[in-house]
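Please describe what follows:
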Amino acid sequence: MAAPVLIVAASDDWPTDKVVMELDRRGVEVFRMDTSDFPQHLALSGRIGQERGWTGELATEHRMVEMSRVGAVYYRAPGAFQFPVGMSGPEERFAASQARAGLGGVLSALECRWVNYPAAMARAEYKPVQLAAARASGLSIPATLITNRAEDVRTFAKEIGRPIVCKPVASPVLIEGGQLKSVYTRRVEDADLADLRGINTTAHLFQSWIDKDHEVRLTMVGGRAFAAAIHAGSAAAHEDWRSDYGSLTYTTTTVPEDVAQGMRRLMARLQLRYGAADFVVGPDGRWTFLEVNPCGQWDWIQGHTGLPIVEAIVDDLTGGS
């Protein structure tokens, strides 16, 4: 019988539901948990000694898994720990640190296949790390500046001699006034360069604008590459396709061998088994790497193109081809 697969993900994450369904279809035992279930709805009992590594169980009211049997872990953006009502702020912060070190520590010690290992994901989410690793892996990257000095932005724009864009260094999503908002990539105009007030308030990322024919979402699972060309149908989507999903069309596409090999080297450098990478493809056919998200969405790409991404994720979790 196949070893159980441990799923660590938000309980309302519907793409993960599809991974679970595919595992169930193949007869693989699954234990799904959300870290927000701990400690009120999830129990941990782990033990280690000189004679044996970590054993013990994770258990809910309805299910249990013996940790030493786990063959793979699918880790995807679980929720925050939830503690009993009535704890003071300091008590809750202390409890959270103990939960992170205890539950998180025991899980991190599991010697099995991870898609992806949390520490590797955390490091890979830094765009400066990604860009350095992509360059070292032989991928083409745009000239990039990260700064909080206005004069450096103007110098960068002058040296590049072509349009530049500004984009978030980290997650482009924020909550303001109780509403979810997104910050999109946008071109920096001459008027913006003349008035860069606010640059000194935090770090900003600037890149050379890459002329594009279309963009590609390249989903890497293990050593397999699934490429979807994204065609913008509006000026806003041409600048940042995330700003106008309704105008987009999708086609499958082939990946140049040098790009495929470069991505495999990049994934190895970042110690990732899964990653959703974005590329610009220029009018001349040149592929330029923008970023790779170790927890990037994939289900909408599969829905539009039929690329078998969920099947590949399950293949990877179960040691298949």
